[in-house]
Design goal:
Layout lengths: L4 E8 L8 H12 L4 H22 L1 E8 L3 E7 L8 H4 L9 H5 L7 H8 L2 E7 L3 E9 L20 E3 L1
Antiparallel strand pairs: 1-2, 2-3, 3-5, 4-5, 4-6
Amino acid sequence: MEDTIKLTYEISGSDLLQAGEASGLLKLRLKQLGIPQEVIRRVSICMYEGEINMVIHANGGTADVEIGADDIFIWLKDTGPGIPDIVKAMAEGFSTAGKKARDLGFGAGMGLPNMKRCSDEMTVTSTVGHGTTVFMRVHIGKSADVASGRLLHASPATPGYDI
């Protein structure tokens, strides 16, 4: 595998039924690179949940992915309304999804918790009125060890929340 592979995906916010395209393309690329299946599963969940959140809440955004020898790094960025209470948004079942998303089976409030559970490291930075950035790291060598999902650090005094 090359030293580092950098990929960028534009996430369209126009059609909820199209969400998941970027995670599908990334999954294919990871398979081509011979990444272990359990790592692919975890990265795919992180990407898919992030895409759905960007479509439902922020009218799209971008996903930057860096694949290295030991880790896969994901940065999901949008310019949506931001998250007023990140700790509350991290609670399983909490959702601000509208009726349209719920009618299509989305908005169960599991997106961020699933992303946290499937990543080895996760930081959410959000400014109300300006958007949200979610950073995740999945360690390639840790394929059988799913992250514990515990809240590592959350403080309104810090610009980001390490989840």
